[in-house]
Specification:
It is built from 9 helices and no strands. It starts with a helix and ends with a helix. 68% of the residues lie in helices and 0% in strands. It is mostly helical. Bound molecules: adenosine-5'-diphosphate (ADP) and magnesium ion (2 copies). One magnesium ion is lined by residues 28, 32-33, 35-36, 76.
Length: 192
């Protein structure tokens, strides 16, 4: 990925999150505290503002600035988790240009911080199959969406939704949806 592609990706991601701010918060209402859309819209908007102001010139610098802004501006559980994801990607980008390896490092840091495995109804349930799909050269926007949809059938065992136990069933996990936006816009930006 080039720095230009990365910036295009982050802009499309921000637009998608801002457009769907209400929907993300609506997903967070029955199984959380209804703030995921507001958290993500605030954080991504601040991230783009920082990128425009500081104009980072390399992939690593852009990822690092994004990580720091997400950590400090998103808030909630998702802020440190997205921040960790981008920090993991930052570190990997210093060693490799391979997108799969970069995303794997992002997922590893999400899991290091949040301790969630696949099947606990979190953003991990979008990240893990997306990376798998990318590895096998069969990732599509429809598939990314289906990974988030599939969290409906999972009982939450991490995050706020875990307080609901069985009652978390039937609802899409909000963080899995914002992560689906992340990967949908990655595909749209032609990031490879
Ligand atoms: P909060 O729950 O603090 O209000 P948000 O609503 O912004 O934070 O984010 C909630 C999302 O964070 C969940 O939908 C889930 O995807 C994600 N999440 C919560 N805990 C974890 C965890 N331990 N590991 C991975 N993702 C998590
Ligand atoms: Mg919330
Ligand atoms: Mg909250």
């Amino acid at each position: 990925m080039t720095n230009e592609q990365l910036k295009q990706w982050l802009q499309l991601f921000t637009d998608k999150v801002v457009e769907n701010k209400q929907y993300l918060s609506d997903l967070d209402t029955p199984i959380g505290d209804g703030d995921h859309g507001a958290n993500m819209a605030r954080g991504t908007t601040e991230m783009m503002k920082a990128i425009e102001e500081k104009n980072p010139e390399t992939v690593t610098d852009t990822l690092k600035l994004s990580a720091m802004t997400l950590i400090s501006k998103v808030g909630g559980a998702s802020g440190p988790l997205y921040g960790s994801a981008f920090m993991g990607m930052t570190k990997a980008s210093m060693k490799t240009e391979d997108l799969v390896e970069i995303l794997e490092a992002g997922l590893a840091d999400i899991q290091k911080r949040g301790k969630a495995e696949i099947g606990e109804k979190t953003m991990v349930d979008t990240w893990a199959p997306t990376i798998e799909g990318l590895k096998n050269n069969e990732l599509t926007i429809e598939k990314v969406q289906s990974f988030s949809e599939a969290t409906k059938d999972i009982k939450a065992s991490k995050g706020r939704a875990s307080y609901l136990g069985e009652r978390s069933l039937g609802h899409i996990d909000p963080g899995s949806m914002s992560s689906a936006y992340l990967f949908e816009t990655m595909i749209k930006a032609g990031v490879k």
